[in-house]
Amino acid sequence: MIVGVPKEIKNNEYRVGLTPPSVRELTSRGHQVLVQKSAGLEIGLPDEQYVAAGATIVVTAKEIFARADMIVKVKEPQPGECAMLGEGQILYTYLHLAPDPEQTAALVRSGAICIAYETITGAGGGLPLLAPMSEVAGRMAIQAGAAHLEKSKGGMGLLLGGVPGVAAGHVAIIGAGVVGTNALQMAVGTGARVTVLDKNMDRLRQLDLIFGNRIATQYSNAHAIEEAVLSADLVIGGVLVPGAAAPKLVTRAMIARMKPGAVVVDVAIDQGGCFETSHATTHADPTFILDGVVHYCVANMPGAVARTSTFALNNATIGHAVALAEKGWQQAMRDDPHLKNGLNVCQGKVTYQAVAQALGYEYVSADEMLA
Question: What pTM, to 2 d.p., does this model score?
Answer without folding.
Answer: 0.88
